[in-house]
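ARCHIVE CARD
Drawer: 12
Card no.: 0347
Subject: one protein chain, sequence and derived structure
Cross-reference: see card 0346
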Amino acid sequence: MTDTTKPADPRDGLLKAVDLAGSVLAALRPEDYDATTPCPDYSVRQLSNHLVSVVRRVAVIGAGGQFFSVPHFAEDVADGDWAKAWAAGAEELRSVWSDPAILGREIGLPWGPVPGAAAAVIYTNEFVLHTWDLAKATGQEPEWDDTVLAAPLAAMQRAVPREPRGGQVPFGPVVDVPEDAPAIDRLVGWYGRRP
């Protein structure tokens, strides 16, 4: 008997991750901006600028644009305006990714093209990790939705093996957590963060 179960649409997790990141960005306070984050070498300010850049980039590459056409940091966004810039970027991302055909389309990434479905999981993971980083740095405790974490959890060990880490693999050593730990703890631990 063949399994004809249709795989879950990864855009659901992507869009929920985008919404959650927007909520965490909106809750940042001026006294948070210079705080360090669990993401090495990034302050809250730098990581917020990077996240805005990523949401813009996901819209651009989804529409067939070039990855490197969007800078690594959104330096055009003033301190405290990240949530506003995020809302605009998220609206564009939603528009571009609303077409189901994007899941089978090739999306250009620096290491080569991937199907849109894979890109959705890659960027869900990035949004989750950096949202967690910001939340941890600023004392926020967002509610993690299982549908947001499902695809990144399923892909994490294939996407980034336990070894090697560092250099071209921009994550620290795996932080082992119990198998029955919350899903978010297992995910961030795999990527070298201490839950």
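Annotation on reverse: The longest strand covers residues 106-109. The helical segments are 10-26, 44-62, 82-97, 116-138, 146-159, 183-190.
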